[in-house]
Design a protein that fits this description.
single chain, 8 strands, 3 domains, globular, eight-stranded mixed sheet
Length: 615
């Protein structure tokens, strides 16, 4: 901490003067004189911790502190030299003089650093309370606890060190440091604009992936990366296709030669044919990988194109990783400016190649939320920042919908993404942040919330959830927990299927009871304690799984209720339908005892409360 470093320097300075004075007094006494050693003290301006116009930072006090440090930096080195000279003239050791001079050098370094940070704070003054607090964090960021060396990495990254940028992304993926996004936000805003432009130009993929940077900066970097990759991939794909066609022509020629008996083993035709066949297979595999990247690029472009339509704001590309299953995040509306912000997390089977449909879900949430509150700034994000399990891998014991492995890997990345949205936010301090988890995405959301108790989101919404890795809604550390489930959605009932293998499959939460499914207890169960909202029955048979994807259907009650929750319009939720009135039994049957309901029958949904917990 800066205050501790300052106190240490002040104490060392006083000790240096005190030690020098005692040595001089001792020498005077040796020469027969009398000497009195005075007491030494230093003073410095301090900052009060009471709230000030700058989110707890008193800029005037900071100015005084910088002035004091600057004066010390100018005067102490000269004082140290004079003290050393006096001690040497008396044939006394002079370490005290060096200590005084060193204190002056330290003071000048701190004054220079704090002046730079004050410039940043003043420049951020109109950006809103959250960014003011983030800028204030940057004021003393260099003196905050930093066990993993983030300060060194950001300093190196600012000068263009690609290795340092990659190391920051690795720390981000681990998700262990909840302050990382705030540090990155402060670091970026303190960079010279020219340095920012250089980093975007040289390392757009790395810059675009850093949580905490302004959304417009990430969009600029990721779009540049997208364009670069599209050009490079299409060029390489064309080259390899031509090469593959030429190799294929040579292979056919050699096969004809061998069949015709025109050459024998001595000519090396067989060896050459095997070499070309191997080369052809490698080239074909490389072509398939490049074709996948082109399909992923097309899906991202299709998702981005949804922005600017139907009154929507332009889309922002907040994340982009091409190749393999791929990762991305697309926002409709600027999350840094939003009053109501929602991040949608998709589930099993989601890939970047098919992400256009998920982007459309975020778009229609924006449409409906804006319709209900046109005077509010809304940002709706589709986030695929984890590798979702695929249906084809259901028999695997590693990454499958039947266990939490993929969710455990994805939760730290979702927690870090949420950290970044908070760190970069510049709108009113009462903005509402919601995370909406669908299907297996609800499991990722539940685990991520538990990694940031009290700081993950203002509310979470689960739809079609097979389990969220928690026994009670209160375990999530979120003020408001909402659950919506279509009556004919079979995935939503996975958490109520008892499995004796739960302890084996669910290592993340071994405390879950045996009555829970592989991903946790059913969050729609009354004992879970979540607030529930109405989702209509689509009329489709459960075995078709159509209801599992119906939560965003246009004009559906489900979509309307999700939008109202995003806006905080809890009293306007469409309620559950009232039970149909039952006819009175005939007199002859009135004395017959009612038969118990078959075991396993679904319990009726409780009516939603008009306001969530904590509201």
């Amino acid at each position: 901490m800066f205050s501790q470093a300052l106190a240490h320097r002040r104490g060392a300075l006083q000790l240096a003067f005190q030690s020098a004075a005692e040595l001089m007094a001792q020498r005077i006494r040796q020469l027969g004189g009398q000497a009195h050693v005075p007491s030494f003290s230093t003073s410095v301006s301090v900052m009060a911790t009471t709230p000030a116009p700058f989110s707890g930072i008193d800029v005037a006090a900071m100015d005084r502190l910088v002035a004091d440090l600057q004066r010390a930096g100018q005067e102490l080195p000269e004082a140290g030299r004079r003290l050393s000279a006096e001690l040497s003239a008396l044939c006394l050791p002079a370490p005290s003089g060096r200590q005084v001079a060193d204190a002056g050098v330290w003071a000048e370094e701190q004054a220079r650093d704090l002046r730079r940070r004050l410039v940043t704070i003043r420049r951020q003054h109109d950006f809103g309370a959250a960014s003011q607090a983030t800028a204030g964090f940057g004021l003393f960021g260099g003196h905050a606890p930093d066990p993993v060396g983030i300060g060194q990495l950001t300093a190196a990254a600012g000068s263009g060190d690609v290795v340092a940028l990659k190391a920051l992304l690795d720390l981000q993926r681990a998700g262990k440091d909840a302050t990382l996004a705030a540090r990155l936000n402060a670091w970026w805003r303190q960079l010279d604009p020219a340095a920012q432009d250089r980093l975007i130009a040289v390392s757009p993929a790395l810059v675009g992936g850093l949580n905490g940077l302004p959304a417009t900066v990430r969009d600029q970097a990721n779009r540049r990366h997208l364009a670069d990759q599209k050009t490079a991939t299409s060029t390489e794909l064309e080259r390899l296709r031509k090469s593959w066609a030429e190799v294929d022509r040579l292979i056919k020629g050699l096969e004809l030669s061998r069949i015709g008996g025109l050459t024998g083993r001595a000519t090396g035709v067989t060896a050459e044919l095997e070499r070309l066949l191997g080369s052809s297979a490698d080239t074909e595999e490389a072509i398939e990988a490049l074709e996948l990247k082109m399909r992923q690029i097309a899906a991202v472009e299709k998702g981005l194109a949804l922005g600017g339509q139907n009154g929507r704001p332009p889309a922002l590309l907040l994340q982009l990783e091409l190749g393999g299953p791929g990762k991305t995040a697309i926002s409709f509306g600027d999350p840094d400016e939003a009053d109501n912000l929602v991040a949608y997390v998709p589930g099993t089977g989601t890939t970047l190649e098919g992400f256009a449909g998920d982007a459309n879900r975020a778009a229609v949430i924006w449409d409906q939320s804006h319709k209900f509150q046109p005077d509010k700034k809304i940002a709706s994000i589709a986030w695929l920042g984890y590798e979702a399990p695929q249906w084809g891998a259901t028999l695997s014991l590693t990454r499958t919908v039947a266990n939490m492995n993929a969710a455990q890997e994805g939760a730290p990345m979702l927690a870090g993404f949420a950290d970044g949205l908070r760190a970069a936010h510049r709108a009113a301090s009462d903005a509402r942040f919601t995370v909406l988890g669908h299907s297996y995405g609800s499991t990722v959301t539940g685990l991520a919330a538990q990694q940031r108790p009290g700081a993950f989101a203002d509310q979470v919404i689960f739809v079609g959830s097979p389990g969220v890795g928690a026994v009670k809604a209160g375990d999530l550390g979120v003020g408001s927990v909402w659950v919506g489930e279509a009556p004919n959605d079979p995935v939503g009932d996975v958490g109520s299927v008892p499995l004796q293998l739960t302890g084996t499959l669910n290592d993340h939460a071994p405390y879950l009871p045996e009555v829970s499914g592989p991903l946790g207890i059913d969050p729609s169960a009354a004992e879970f304690g979540a607030r529930q909202f109405h989702v209509e029955d689509t009329g489709d048979p459960a075995y078709t799984f159509k209801a599992h994807s119906s939560y965003w259907d246009p004009a559906s009650v489900s979509l309307k209720n999700i939008a109202r929750l995003v806006n905080g319009q809890f009293v306007n939720l469409d309620p559950f339908p009232k039970p149909e009135a039952t006819r009175p039994l005939p007199a002859a049957l009135s004395s017959v005892s009612p038969q118990p309901a078959p075991s396993g029958s679904p319990s009726s949904h409780p009516l939603p409360s008009p306001m969530p917990v904590g509201e």
